[in-house]
Each structure stands twice: as structure tokens, then as C-alpha cells.
Fold:
Amino acid sequence: MAKTYMIGNWKMNQTLAEVESFFANLSLENNQNNFWISPQTLHVQKCITLGASTGILIGSQNCSDQDYGAYTGEVSTESLIEMGGHFSLVGHSERRAYYQESDEFINKKIKKSIEKGLVPVLCIGETLEQREAGDTFSIVLSQLKNGLINIKLNNEAELIVAYEPVWAIGTGKTASPEQAAEVHDKIREKLREIFGELGEDISILYGGSVKPSNVATLLAQKNINGGLVGGASLKSESFAELCAACSL
Ligand code: PEP
Structure:
């Protein structure tokens, strides 16, 4: 069965004082190593230290497709693992849009992450224009297929997929549970096609204006196995409420 995760994506937010206050005020119940946070890279080490007592696992928002060398500004998967990092977001729509990340590049980052023992969270999703043109399934499934070319898994915990309709990210517009569920069902079918039985157990998270008031109806959908959350993960009370919904 696919495990349920709640992952906070803090983007380029939070001062050091806000990070400290977040962890000082955080109280979580029933943590099964499934509550994760990706702070900005400069705060990863601090969050690993502060998050240790709550059992929160920390990752990055991006990682390099290379081992090491002359790649100015990149995030090394090996260094992240070395300092206790657990995962990396890969192919977030903001990176696809602002930094022109292609499916091919994203595929290389997924390969590198898995090779080094970091869990990649592959983000996929359509824009409003693509949805209105009736292209949602073809866009999402081609991002999924191309991102996973030649990826081999030993078990389902090595990969997480996050469906994030671009029009719902940071806009306050959430996909309805039915809209999200029909895309998640298609993603599940494709994961089964690619990975066989293992595809049944890979977690598929929904992202796009998830908040405490809508999380339960989203998580009630069969193939929605958690959330990738931006804005509502920044405050400890709200993040704790989202995490609590994972055990309902
Ligand atoms: C995100 O950053 O991936 C995201 C879904 O943001 P928000 O929850 O703010 O829409």
C-alpha cells in the first residue's frame, strides 16, 4: 500500500529566526518518518539539527544531475546525503518555468538522486492553458514518462511523484477532489505500466493550495497519498494540522 506523506516546500522563504520558531513550536503526533520539509538550501543543515527531535526529515528543493566539479551554484546530492538530507524535489513547476528545466534534465537528476540514495520527489503538472485546451492527461503523463526513462527501483520508497497543477500553486485555487483524483488515477495506471506491481505502492502526492480546511477531502481520494504544500506549511500550527490529517 502506498504510504501517506506530508511534505512542506518552503521555497525561498523563512528567516533563520522563523525557522527556529517553527521547530520550537512544532508538535507532531504519529510521525512515521512521513513528515518532510524542504527549506531553502542554506537552511538545510539548521533544519536537520532542529528537526531531529520531531523526527521531521529534511531535503532540498533542487539537486544537481552531476557528481561534483565546476557546476557553480548547484546542490550536490552526495553532500546533501552526507549532512543527513533525505530527499530532493525535482522538476518543481517553478524550476521548469523560471529555469527552463527540461524533462531530459529532470530525468538525469532523478537518476543521480536514486544512485546516491536520495529520494526524488518528481513534480509534474499542467498549466491553465494546457488544461483549458484539454491537454491535462497528455502533458502530465508525458512529464511522468519522460522523467522516469530508464529509472530502475528496488522498492517503492525510492521515488515519490507529486501532481501539482500549475494553476493551483500559490493561487488559492485548489483542484477539486474529483479533478485531482482523475489525474492521480491516470498517474497510477502509468506507474503500473512502467514499474509493474511496484507502481501500485509508489506514493502520489497532490500539491496546489492544500490547507487544513481542504486536506481531508483530498486525502480521502483513493490515489492521493499525501500533499506537497507551500504556503500552508510555513507555520508550525498549520503544518501540524496537515500532518495530523495523514493519520485520519
Ligand atoms: C508548492 O510549492 O509546491 C505548492 C503547492 O505551493 P502552495 O501550497 O502554496 O500552492
